[in-house]
């Protein structure tokens, strides 16, 4: 029983909130009322939870020696010795191959996105995470792939473009605004995480790439990416195609996105947090309220 619990912990369930991005496709396509698509999105969410969990296990296996030097990571199942090498191998193979096999049942597009997601994460664990700037790009692309996966569940063919109309019958529209906002939003969170990690004593011993970052550089990158996120999202809510589908009230959601970004800045600089965005979302009540109000606003606009 202890081995099973250690295996479950190694999958990092607290990080699974990132995979909620898969529901954006069915929600913003105004098809959340379609039970079959909603169930497919739930399947996709679970697949990405288990697939990303297997990658976390793989990454922990590679970093086990460094994690033992970290004040928090030393308590992880692999670093603490609670998860054996045998259980790690079983869990990694079972959850990675099992998730990819499951993804095939949801369509070729979804399978290909899941496969690229898996391979990109392997590349990140083996090489990208040691390359300054590229390490954060790898994280951001993972978020973009989650968003694309959610759209890939909707139809056999994907159509993209800035046109004001929707996709033709039998296709799903992949909005460039979704890709841009997701990418730069993820960059902002990843740079905030690096900023938080720099505050740990002897930070570069826990993560080599931190030796290439400085607080001043990360401050500038945070400001840059935050500005792009706010601008991209504002343009999305003002775009004629968005207004025609969701109505003018979607503009109100800018209040909560702006508050969320500013609250995050406060937590990073004033409270010296930001090393784990997923845990921040689960712990900071004002941030949770802001996200909840944004979700309610979007649901109301989508439902009209």
Protein architecture, described:
The protein folds into 2 domains: 1-165, Tetracycline Repressor, domain 2, CATH 1.10.357; 175-304. The protein has helices at 2-10, 24-28, 35-62, 64-67, 77-80, 85-104, 108-126, 134-152, 176-197, 203-206, 215-238, 240-246, 253-269, 277-283, 285-303, and strands at 157-160, 171-174. The chain starts with a helix and ends with a helix. The model has no long low-confidence stretch (mean pLDDT 88). Helices cover 68% and strands 3% of the residues. It is globular, with a radius of gyration of 20 Å. It is mostly helical. It contains 15 helices and 2 strands.
> What number of domains?
2
Strand content: under 5%
Number of distinct beta strands: 2
Helical content stands at: 55-70%
Q: What is the radius of gyration computed over CA atoms, rounded to a whole number of angstroms?
A: 20 Å
Number of helices: 15
Overall average pLDDT? 88
Poorly predicted ranges (pLDDT <50, ≥5 residues)?
A: none
Explain the layout of strands and helices.
Elements: H1 2-10, H2 24-28, H3 35-62, H4 64-67, H5 77-80, H6 85-104, H7 108-126, H8 134-152, E1 157-160, E2 171-174, H9 176-197, H10 203-206, H11 215-238, H12 240-246, H13 253-269, H14 277-283, H15 285-303
Parallel strand pairs: 1-2
Using brief descriptors, characterize the structure shown.
304 residues; mainly alpha; Tetracycline Repressor, domain 2; 2 domains; 2 strands; 68% helix; globular
């Amino acid at each position: 029983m202890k081995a099973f619990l250690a295996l479950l912990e190694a999958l990092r369930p607290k990080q699974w909130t990132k995979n909620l991005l898969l529901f954006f496709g069915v929600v913003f396509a105004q098809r959340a009322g379609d039970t079959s698509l909603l169930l497919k999105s739930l399947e996709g969410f679970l697949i990405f939870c288990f697939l990303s969990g297997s990658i976390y296990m793989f990454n922990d296996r590679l970093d086990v020696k460094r994690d033992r030097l970290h004040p928090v990571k030393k308590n992880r199942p692999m670093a603490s010795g609670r998860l054996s090498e045998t259980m790690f191998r079983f869990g990694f193979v079972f959850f990675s191959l099992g998730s990819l096999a499951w993804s095939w049942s949801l369509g070729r597009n979804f399978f290909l996105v899941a496969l690229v997601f898996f391979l990109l994460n392997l590349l990140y664990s083996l090489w990208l995470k040691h390359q300054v700037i590229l390490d954060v790009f790898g994280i951001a692309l993972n978020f973009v792939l989650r968003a694309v996966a959610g759209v890939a569940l909707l139809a056999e063919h994907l159509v993209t473009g800035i046109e004001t109309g929707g996709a033709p019958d039998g296709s799903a529209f992949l909005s460039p605004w979704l890709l841009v906002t997701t990418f730069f939003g993820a960059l902002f969170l990843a740079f905030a995480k690096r900023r938080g990690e720099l505050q740990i004593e002897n930070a570069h011993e826990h993560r080599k790439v931190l030796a290439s970052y400085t607080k001043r550089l990360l401050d500038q990158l945070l400001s840059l990416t935050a500005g792009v996120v706010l601008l991209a999202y504002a343009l999305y809510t003002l775009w004629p195609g968005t207004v025609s589908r969701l109505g003018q009230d979607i503009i109100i959601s800018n209040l909560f996105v702006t508050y969320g970004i500013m609250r995050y800045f406060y937590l990073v600089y004033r409270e010296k947090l930001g090393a784990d965005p997923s845990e921040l979302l689960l712990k900071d009540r004002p941030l949770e309220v802001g996200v909840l109000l944004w979700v309610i606003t979007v649901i109301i606009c989508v439902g009209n």
